[in-house]
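User: Second chain of the day. Same drill as before.
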Amino acid sequence: MSRHPALLSAALLASSLLVARPAAAHKPSDSYLTLEPSARADLEVRWDIAVRDLDYAIGVDRDGDGAITWGEVRAARASIDAYAQSRLTVRRAALPCASSVLTPSRLVHHSDGAYVVLSFAMACSPQASAESSIDVDYRLLFDVDPQHRGIAQFTGSSRQTMIFDIDHPTARLAPGRPDPWRDLRTAIRSGVRHIWSGYDHLLFLLALMLPCMLRRTEAGTWEGVSGLRPAFRQIATVVTAFTLAHSLTLSLAALDLVRLPSRLVESLIAASVVTAAMNNLLPFTRTDGWVIAFALGLLHGFGFAGALTDAGLSGTRLVSTLFGFNVGVEIGQLAIVILFVPLAFASRNTLGYRRVMLFGGSGAIAMVSLVWLIQRAFV
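Assistant: Same format as last time:
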């Protein structure tokens, strides 16, 4: 048996996290899909797919040097078109629409790097009318990246937003029957999924909550808090501060009032997780936990904003989506608190909580987030 259970636990937890989700070191994988009726076709489709995702799925980097050139993208154009079209099925009035390439592919830049823009024309059955329902089946990258999302917009008579993920790969559009609550429901679901799949955000919250079940004695040792109420009050204060901070910067970024480079934001988010975890191991500030949560939470709001700004939403749709996304994030956070508090409170006075959970857990969080910081800043 190891004489240092906290260090052993930290190493095991860090290893399992790194093996389980190496891709969590970066902004979640998203693609941006637009469906629009036009005079040239029943539907015109614009699809922005990250170059790095295409390379991961079909191997665009032919020479393997780690730098994907426009020449390599052009050389892989036929494979990219075939791969994308095989992952998207559109039906109108329950009848499949046939797709054909509309224009040559090109590159654009979103907040997290280069994207290939694919343009398709969709020819649907003559039996379908302009009011017929449209069924979209989206399967891009789900077989290689379960965290991938497709953010889609229908720009016809009733503008609608859809978010596809591995659990919700299909959606139905009813062009003649707009649903004012659809975008809000979609945004809430996306916010919940974002917080649960955003491992850096989860680890940051965990690092902030772990010491809330303990207090330092005058002798400098740790002991469990006296009751559930003060423990819950402290956690509620920390989570509320984090919520207010990331909601503020999320709104500023989504409304395009403040914009920071994605690489910088993701690096600083990883650094914030390292900071929160290390403060549990080697306290370097006596500042209240809620102050740390608010200050570092400002960074996380910019991270949440990436997908919203890249999706090109505006006006009331942006406001509705922003509100729903925030609500979804808070629902996800509340679920984490509800799971954490009873278990942590019941074990707060045990040696296992102080050594394994607080010190071992914080050490593991610091190790994992340090790896993310190096990857985001330098790789």
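Residues 1-26 have pLDDT under 50 and may be disordered.

User: Great, on to the next one.
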